[in-house]
Amino acid sequence: MQEVKIALLGAGTVGAQVARLLTVHQDELNVRAGAKLTLIGVAVRNINSQRDWDIPSELLTTDAYSIIRQADVVIELMGGIHPAREYILEAFKNGASVVTGNKALLAEYGPELHDAADEAQVDLYYEAAVGGAVPVVYGLRESLSGDRITHVLGIVNGTTNYILDKMTTKGLSYEVALKKAQELGFAEADPTADVDGFDAAAKCALLASLAFHTRVSLSDVPTEGIRGITPGIIASAKANNYTVKLVASAKRREDGIELFVGPALIPNAHPLANIRGVYNAIVVEGEAADRLMFYGPGAGGAPTASAVLSDLVAAANHKANGGFAPRELVYGDTPILDGSKATSRYQLKMVVQDSVGVLHAIMGVFAKNNVSISDVSQENENDGKENTCYLTVTTHEAVYADLQNTIDELNNASQAVTRFTSILRVENA
Amino acid sequence: MQEVKIALLGAGTVGAQVARLLTVHQDELNVRAGAKLTLIGVAVRNINSQRDWDIPSELLTTDAYSIIRQADVVIELMGGIHPAREYILEAFKNGASVVTGNKALLAEYGPELHDAADEAQVDLYYEAAVGGAVPVVYGLRESLSGDRITHVLGIVNGTTNYILDKMTTKGLSYEVALKKAQELGFAEADPTADVDGFDAAAKCALLASLAFHTRVSLSDVPTEGIRGITPGIIASAKANNYTVKLVASAKRREDGIELFVGPALIPNAHPLANIRGVYNAIVVEGEAADRLMFYGPGAGGAPTASAVLSDLVAAANHKANGGFAPRELVYGDTPILDGSKATSRYQLKMVVQDSVGVLHAIMGVFAKNNVSISDVSQENENDGKENTCYLTVTTHEAVYADLQNTIDELNNASQAVTRFTSILRVENA
Fold it and tell me: How does pLDDT run across B85-100, given as a tens digit for each residue?
């Protein structure tokens, strides 16, 4: 068997597990790759750090370039943009294939990296960048390569799913649920990247690029977080057979690709509604395949390492035996739609004046702005004041700009609406 | 781009969709395969049959060998054992790769076919053989190639899942639910292959072979059907937070591979409990990956065709650009365990004499046979006779032979048990 030399960059939670599995399962991995996998070095910032698994000290180095230049396959698990980008470009320059789990880097520099891999005629694999062990990158890149994908809708951030799940099942407030997630290590001390949706937006960009054979970057994705989700919103969703989830959505429409990351109401009959805790799940709809779902742990050292190793086996197989990974082809000229043109169903909850003619006036504003309504319900409990009540309006598919005009007009020009308490997208069952 | 010539054998529900998608999406498929895909012929039994999609008449032939001998890739969708096996062997002999959805053939002649493909150094792909569009073959063969799989547990037969789902959600009897499935085209006039578990057993053999890198055939799989599932069993499961599902299970134990197809109690918190209607879902547990699930339509022309086309794209890519599919490697010497050695938790319901000392006597028989009990409950409603009541016993992990001895002894030697009303495996949450 031909030897394939592997350089590992980073030995954190995932990197240490990759080194462990490469050692413990070496014989099986060699058989599967059709190659003799040899770990030639592990680049780390600090040789003496404590690690989840003891990497033989002769493999450790602080000089990443020294091992990159000898490698056939480079595994990049250090994270961050720089110097990860420079290391990967150096790997390609030296004819090595690359396996990475760096979603932030791919969402920002994906096109550059794919072009560099193509030019060097080597592979760029990144299963671990979306959904941890969940093989959705494989699914989109290979399993559905004979189909035309219409919609990708996923729970791709375990932290926010944990928080929303605890709010739903235990009735916790956002603050308490976040604190619990932090205590359990499911959320960072600074939770911004997760709770404001940026992590999910980077994954959304990767999924959309793959699904629609185009180049989507982070800045293309309209993104909302979950800080504004209250127990009241959760309770009201439950009462109406919905579950609130932070979703990443990428949809093919006739005029372009529509993207969204943010909280949405998922009908309880939808398979995503039942995804609990820190698990991830991605629903992929194809013209022929109908609806598929990929489900599993979205994070964690060993699960993510499993995804890295499957990429490594494929990349090493190609190095030793020929062939290559599917290229990230761009074809067609489907534009990415501006967020204002997105269409969705929406549910708006508002506090309104409880007097004759108010409902009529509000409906008039919706109609004038071309937003068609499927459902209106008024709740008797008032807002603590006399003369007000809650109104819940669910729309048919509406254009976001039209919805926004409706909201602005109701906020500014109408005496009928005191305030909006929530505005959420509604996914179809 | 290099031309890759494709011969299609069979133009039934799936074959006609494959021909349609190959024609309609030709440009996209060519780009993805990195090859010019040319359908050179479609072998059918009767040229003049009515089909779901009109195949150009100049492509139709009744002489399969004539197109097989010119092809680079042969797609076999005719079903049955003979002459499908002979056609596929002829394809390999001529250096063509093969894509098939023929689970019965693979479960019986898999080893022969894999060996023939290896010898010819061509690909044998069969995503459509398990779970329709659900990419579980891909998942096991490629996405989890860096992991060590411990358990595959799946709902792989849509017909029985539909029947059990209707019994559960609508309270139908087995007979009425079966009739409804037949009316909707979800069950055959002769439903034996589905309801007696044989279809699921063939898929179980394929999944186990893939997951554990060994050769499992249909006859290795202890198989039970669902004809004995009564509304009473369903109702009792529901009351105890279980759902009855026909599952295919393949588990790696220290001493070998344990296989089972049959009805089982799935805890409602388990992701398989929520799989509705004719959908399929396969849970795969890996040492590193934790628990993944693949979900989607398990049958239907277009979904299954989507799986066939993804295989075609991969096979054509290899033909044009080098590389090959992962080989079905056999390594290690893990034996397939005899069904009597299988271990599982079980739930037994029985009608027992309602008198002092009976429970003690029954518990004694379990203990003597080494079956440890986790839970006992007695129901007050009697069996229509005086002096009897229902007893439900749930065991810890027990060896099947020990359980069988317990049952035999209680049936034959004991006055305490009038009869057993159900004996079901219980899956862990």
Answer: 999 999 999 999 999 9
